[in-house]
Design a protein that fits this description.
By secondary structure, the chain is of the alpha+beta class. The chain folds into three domains: 202 residues, 4-Layer Sandwich (Glutamine Phosphoribosylpyrophosphate, subunit 1, domain 1), CATH 3.60.20.10; 207 residues, 3-Layer(aba) Sandwich (Rossmann fold), CATH 3.40.50; 69 residues, no CATH class. Helix content is 44%, strand content 16%. Strands 2-3-1-9-8-10 form a six-stranded antiparallel sheet, covered by helices on one side. It has a six-stranded antiparallel sheet with strand order 4-5-6-7-11-12, with helices on one face. This is asparagine synthase (glutamine-hydrolyzing).
């Protein structure tokens, strides 16, 4: 893994531009502590910090090939096959690195070369002869890339902090903040700051004298086919073994994360078949029997014969939160960022690369707590006339008390509210962590005015409707793969792993496996109350049924409990802070009322107050000058 940064100015770069790139490299050093390099010509300054993984001796960057220069963050897993193809076309190679393959592939196929790359990547390639910069991100958005444009001047970087000197003034984007209060993250192409954007996943951008143009080069397709279980398993194992195998290529020590679920045990089991040594596995748990996965992960590790390590996260571990905010870059309300950091930190003590099980839930039907109720409610809607639903259930939803502390099937208020609206609106209501009526209540009049009618629903509707021919669960998966996965899950993994200079590889996010999952019929994803049917059947090849059928405990911290205890001072500081911009957007008095309800146990608003705490810590780290 690496960090990249650069400035292209078609009218000529200045000493100030070079200084900004070098300053940015210092801010990105945690992403690549091994080496640092800078390239400069009349119109470009490109910088790179390197975490050496492949071709330790000659893979240095920026890498130059005559008029072409590239800085690259990530791994191209199919680089050996591409290298052979390019050599057959007459290209000569001077290194063993995947970086050089990008240069030669661009020389042969131009910006369309991204369609041939399989991996996790963000790169910037300066073509001095054509006076153009090519920016690209991998299909699923595993590696980040921010940019800002002013006329003939473009700056880019792996993290937003390195681009802040490009802004005349730090100004929050109210729509981005509204998304944060709704989803817990800021979706592409927005960032939390006006003037800085994210290149969306599966996009290539070309910057030249004609301006900046973006093109999507890949899209997830759902086209269910009548697979039998045996045929699906055969095709899955063919693709999965290849996906794991190519992610074992490394010139540095390699291990894996292990939970008590389905996905990471499946990855570890496949690794044990391909490696000639015990896999070094790492697990995280909590000092709470109801949430900790350590006992089950320990059992799985024993059965697979791994070299297993464990770490117990306790509430006082949250004292490191202010430091983690620096690495998150933008506010992210996903509390599992904390244990993710710890498992990465633990793994980094012994390895430089770790394989994970990320991607199984979104592709193979794992979020049953959302998917199954959505499917059930959709079937009910078809049986109840619209006039009855929109009046009777809307009324019941407004009258029924909120019971967020109950399991979802018992939250009748939520069910009534969902039955009163369309499938897409119900899915949106399930996805947001701060309900629409609460946001309406606590938003300030000025904030509502700045939003001018804009709604986070506008991010969900086009995606859900794009696949309107599919069943409701597949439509929900499509949204998650295009929205929740790249904007939350993969951001969390990238930032927390890069904070400790650990490379994380995810075989289940191999794009060919994702495409295969899109062809599976619903019956191979869910059955009754159980999800990930195909992956469970695959895991039976490696583990006994007793270990597979045990319920997964989850990876999120018990934030509601912690916020009523050890983290309470963080929230009370935020509520009392007169200098905070938060109270320009929210009503402090109404938020205090919700806080008292949360403390009393009448409401479980732990996710919201965790997000509020993160926003305050982020504000103190990024928004104000030191």
């Amino acid at each position: 893994m690496c960090g990249i940064i650069g400035i292209i100015d078609l009218s000529g770069v200045s000493k100030k531009d070079e200084a900004m790139v070098r300053q940015g490299l210092a801010l990105l050093k945690h992403r690549g502590p091994d080496e640092e390099g800078v390239f400069k010509d009349n119109q470009a300054v490109l910088g790179h910090v390197r975490l050496s993984i492949i071709d330790l001796s000659s893979g240095r960057q920026p890498m130059v090939d005559e008029e072409l220069t590239v800085v690259f963050n990530g791994e191209i897993y199919n680089f050996l096959g591409l290298r052979k193809e390019l050599e057959a076309l007459g290209h000569k190679f001077e290194t063993r690195s995947d970086t050089e393959v990008i240069l030669k592939a661009y020389r042969e196929w131009g910006p369309d070369c991204v369609e041939r790359l399989s991996g996790m990547f963000a790169f910037a390639l300066w073509d001095a002869a054509k006076r153009r910069l090519v920016l690209a991100r991998d299909r699923l958005g595993k590696k980040p890339l921010y940019y800002t444009v002013k006329g003939q001047h473009l700056a880019f970087a792996s993290e937003i902090k390195a681009l802040l000197p490009e802004l005349d003034k730090k100004t929050l984007d109210p729509e981005a903040l509204d998304c944060y209060f709704s989803f817990g993250f800021v979706p592409s192409p927005k960032s939390i700051f006006y003037g800085i954007k994210k290149l969306p996943p599966a996009h290539v951008a070309v910057f030249s004298e004609n301006g900046l143009s973006l093109k999507r080069y890949w899209e997830i397709k759902f086209s269910p086919r009548p697979y039998t279980l045996d045929d699906a398993l055969e095709e899955f194992f063919t693709l999965f073994e290849k996906a794991v195998s190519i992610r074992l290529i490394s010139d540095v020590p390699l291990g894996a994360f292990l939970s008590g679920g389905i996905d990471s045990p499946l990855v570890v089991a496949q690794m044990t078949r391909l490696l000639d040594r015990p896999v070094l596995t790492n697990s995280i748990g909590f000092d709470d029997e109801k949430t900790s996965e350590l006992p089950l992960a320990r059992e799985i590790a024993r059965h697979l014969g791994t070299d297993h390590r464990e770490y117990l996260v306790k509430p006082e571990a949250a004292e490191i939160l202010p430091g983690l905010i620096y690495h998150l870059d933008e506010p992210l309300a996903d509390s599992s960022a904390l244990p993710t950091y710890y498992v990465c930190q633990m793994a980094r003590q012994n390895v430089t690369v770790a394989l994970s099980g990320d991607g199984g839930d979104e592709s193979f039907g794992g979020y049953t707590f959302r998917y199954l109720p959505h499917l059930f409610e959709s079937r009910l809607r078809k049986r109840i006339p619209l006039p009855l639903r929109s009046t009777f259930f809307r009324l019941l939803g407004s009258l029924y008390p909120r019971a967020s502390w109950l399991p979802k099937p018992l939250r009748l208020k939520t069910i009534f509210q969902n039955l009163a609206v369309s499938d897409v609106r119900a899915f949106y209501q399930d996805l947001v962590w701060l309900p629409v009526d609460i946001r309406e209540e606590i938003y300030s009049a000025q904030f509502k005015k700045e939003l001018d009618g804009a709604s986070p629903f506008e991010w969900i509707y086009p995606l859900y409707q794009q696949v309107k021919e599919l069943d409701p669960m597949s439509r929900a998966q499509f949204v998650d793969l295009n929205f929740y996965l790249p904007e939350d899950v993969l951001v969390k993994v990238d930032r927390m792993s890069m904070a400790v200079a650990l490379e994380v590889r995810s075989p289940l996010l191999d794009y060919q496996l994702v495409e295969f999952a899109g062809k599976l019929p619903l019956k191979l994803k869910v059955r009754g109350n159980t999800g990930k049917i195909l992956l469970r059947e695959a895991l039976k090849k490696f583990l006994p049924e007793g270990l597979i059928s045990k319920p997964k405990r989850g990876f999120a911290v018990p934030e509601a409990k912690w916020l009523r205890g050890e983290l309470k001072p963080f929230l009370e500081e935020a509520l009392a802070a007169n200098d905070s911009f938060i109270w320009q957007y929210l009503s402090r008095e109404k938020v205090k009322v919700l806080w008292q309800k949360h403390l009393s146990g009448r409401f479980n608003l732990g996710v919201f107050f965790w997000g509020l705490m993160i926003l305050r810590l982020w504000e103190k780290e990024f928004f104000y000058e030191a």
